[in-house]
Amino acid sequence: MMMVSTARTVQELPQSTAGEPAAPRAAALCLPRMMTAPAPCPRTATVAEEGGVCETAADYFSRSNRRGSIVSDLDDLSIPDLDSLDEKCDKQFTETYSRPSSRCTTPGLSAATLASLGGTSSRRGSADTGSMVDPDASLSELRDIYELKDQIQDVEGRYMQGLKELKDSLSEVEEKYKKAMVSNAQLDNDKANLVYQVDTLKDVIEEMEEQMAELHREVEEKSKELERQKHMCTVLQHKQEELKEGIRQRDELIEDNQRMQQKLDSLTREVFDLQETINWKDKKIGALERQKEYFDCIRIERDELRDELADLKGKSKAGEKHGLVIIPEGTPNGDVSHESAGGAITVVTQEAAQVLESAGEGPLDVRLRKLANEKDELLAQIRKLKMQLEEERQKNSKMESVFSDGERLENGTDLHFIEMQRDANRQISEYKFKLSKAEQEMGTMEQNINRLEGQVLRYKAAADNSEKIEDELKIEKRKLQRELRTALDKIEEMEMTNSHLVKRLEKMKANRNALLSQQ
Prior knowledge:
Layout: H1 2-18, H2 22-29, H3 33-36, H4 46-67, H5 70-76, H6 82-97, H7 111-130, H8 135-322, H9 350-358, H10 364-518
Helix pairs in contact: 1-6, 1-8, 2-8, 4-7, 4-8, 6-7, 7-8, 8-10
């Protein structure tokens, strides 16, 4: 019975180890070199088998001495039926060696054991023929049985140890798999959170980009408005410069007019002064002419008096000679003044007497000399006055020429001044017209600006409304995108869970098929 159980164990050992991993199977097959050696044919190696049996017998007795005694071992053992053992060994031999790969892969049985079995079978056949039992053969069989039992126990211990190690490694792998699944779930959650954060950041970036685009649009509008304002400012500055230039020209014309007026006033004053001087000179010349006429009259009278005096002297001389008295003409009733002057009597007219009285007191010669001196002085004064008169006439002629030139200049300057004043008035009227026109244009431009500002306000209101609607639509769009992303994430998670479940189902099917194939 023990041989049957050992043979069954040896037969079931490769089947049980076939479905296990390579490590336990290698551990189960890791037997001594003696057991894994190729088994020789039992019919061709009888001598070697006998030598091996002797050696194994010696080993057995030595081992039995170590364990105890041979008798106790034999008492404990029950000798099996050799016929059934031979049949089973032959059957096992035929089954193992009928396979194509049974030379080197027969587990659990050594070449010596097979040789001993073959030897026993051959000896059993010979024993059957001879009806004799060899005690050495039975001892060798018992020794082989003990060895097989030890080998089977070793193999079972190794197999159980490998199975235990395999279970431990399987539990460790399952724990690692669970930890990996937990870490994968955490990583999936982290990934989902990061994806959500990325989506929110994308939304924030889109909002910021929209704000930046809006700011760029506002900046462009402000820059365009600034350019328009600059253009209007340049136009107004140009107009202002033109108006300033016109005002400057007007001021210059006014200043020129004032200077011309001042020059004209100075010229008129000079003319008036010259006229006054000329009038004074004319008056002086008239007085001198009257004085000259008076002196001419006096000179004529003097000459007449000289002539009369000469006549009187001649007559007096003749009268003295003849004793005559000269009676002046016009003496009434022939009255004469009798003066005794050195025995001579002189009779003169009243005018001559007045002239002589004006000459002073003294004799007639002295008076006449005085009159002659006065006459010379008067003649000298007359010459001086004539010279002065000539000078004054020359000056007068020069002044008349200057005055005529001044009148002509005055007339010309008056005309030029009138023309300049007309031009200035015309320019002033033109500037006033331009100013009124510019004011009208400014009024129209202000009206246009007000109208355009109203349009801009309306457009801004419409733009604000459209921007509000656009913002609402963008918010709805973002909400829909978030919902879409969440739906897609859920779909991906469901697909991942589905794929995991499919993989687990396939693994379970594979394990079930493996278990079914092992059973």
